Amino acid sequence: MSKNGIYTPLDFKNVDFNVSIDEVGVGDRLARIKSRSIKKASKVEATLMAINMIDLTTLEGMDSPAKVRQLCSKAMRPHEEYENIPSTAAVCVYPNYVALAKKELKGSGVNVAAVSTAFPSGNAPMSIKIEDTKFAVDAGADEIDMVISRGKFLCGEYNFVFDEIAKIKEVCGKAHLKVILETGELETLDKVRLASDIAMEAGADFIKTSTGKIQPAATMPVTLVMLEAIREFYYRTGKMIGMKPAGGIKQHKDALKYLVMVKETLGEAWLNNKYFRFGASSLANELLMQLVKEYTGNYQAPEYFSID
C-alpha cells in the first residue's frame, strides 16, 4: 500500500523495515576477522582463488576496442609465464563493447558483464534503462550490473526500487543480474541492509556494493552487513545469492581478509566466482605481484604488469 507516493512496509511481507544494525557488534566481528593469520601455502591458494574471482573492468569515457581487447587478453591469461594462474571471472564493459568482448573471450570460460540502467547515476527514464539492458543482453552479455535509483530509495519509495529491479531481472532472461546499491550514498548500515533485502526479494542474483565512482566504495563493515543479509535470505529461502564488493580494494592482504569474512559468514560454498566477486581491476596486479614473490622470492616491479 502507498500513501502520498511513499510506500509502506505492508508491500514487502519478507522485508524487515525496522532492522537495526549493531555497529559496535560489526566492529567487534571485523576486529576478529582482521586478526586471522594465513600461512604460506594457504596464502598462495587464497591468492589464486581471489584472481579467479575478479571482474576485470574498464568503464571510462576513453574506452576503445584496443583497450577492451587488451583487457580480455589479460582476463584469459593474467600472467604469461605462469600457466597455473587461473583466468579472472569476467570482463565488465559498457554495453557497446559487449559484442567485441564476447568475440575475444569465446571458449575461454570468462564471462562478459555489462553495466546498465544509466550507470553510474541511475538517473534515466525506465524505458531507457530497459533498452540499455536489452541491448547488452542481445549483444551476448552473460551478466548485467545494474544500479538502483538511490534518490528514490532515500525518499522511501521502496516499491519503485523493487519494481525496477524486478523488471530489469525480467529483461535479463538467462543473464545473471548484479544489483549495485552504491552503498557510499546510502548513509547508514541500516539502509544498506534494507537495500540488500529489497534487491534479493526483487530477484537479484548478486548484490554489489558500489559502482567504483563514489567514495567510500566497498568497505568491510558494509560488506559484512550485506553478507549477513545473504545468509539470512538463504536460511529463509534456500537460495544462494552472490556478493560483489567493488571499488577501493587494492591490497593483497585486504583481499584475503574479505575471503576470510566470506568463509566465516557464509561458508565455503560461497568461496568461488559463482557466488563471490571482486570488482577491483587494480587488485589483479597486486595479487600477481604477490604470487611472483611467493614463486621466486622476488617482487617484480609494477611496470612488469599491464595497467589494464
How would you summarize this macromolecular structure in one to three sentences?
The chain is of the alpha/beta class and 308 residues long.
Commentary on this structure:
It contains 11 helices and 9 strands. The longest helix has 18 residues, at 220-237. The protein has helices spanning 23-34, 40-51, 65-76, 98-104, 126-138, 150-154, 158-172, 189-202, 220-237, 252-266, 281-296; strands at residues 2-3, 6-7, 55-57, 90-93, 111-116, 143-147, 176-180, 206-208, 242-244. The chain has one domain: Aldolase class I (TIM Barrel). By secondary structure, it is an alpha/beta fold. The strands form 2 sheets. A 7-stranded parallel sheet has the order 3-4-5-6-7-8-9. The protein has a two-stranded antiparallel ribbon with strand order 1-2. The chain is globular. Strand 8 (206-208), helix 9 (220-237) and strand 9 (242-244) form a beta-alpha-beta unit.
Order of helices and strands: EEHHEHEHEHEHHEHEHEHH
Strand order of the largest sheet: 3-4-5-6-7-8-9
Helix vs. strand class = alpha/beta
Strand content: 5-15%
CATH homologous superfamily classification: Aldolase class I
Note the total helix count: 11
Q: What would CATH call the architecture?
A: Alpha-Beta Barrel
Secondary-structure topology with pairs:
Layout: E1 2-3, E2 6-7, H1 23-34, H2 40-51, E3 55-57, H3 65-76, E4 90-93, H4 98-104, E5 111-116, H5 126-138, E6 143-147, H6 150-154, H7 158-172, E7 176-180, H8 189-202, E8 206-208, H9 220-237, E9 242-244, H10 252-266, H11 281-296
Parallel strand pairs: 3-4, 4-5, 5-6, 6-7, 7-8, 8-9
Antiparallel strand pairs: 1-2
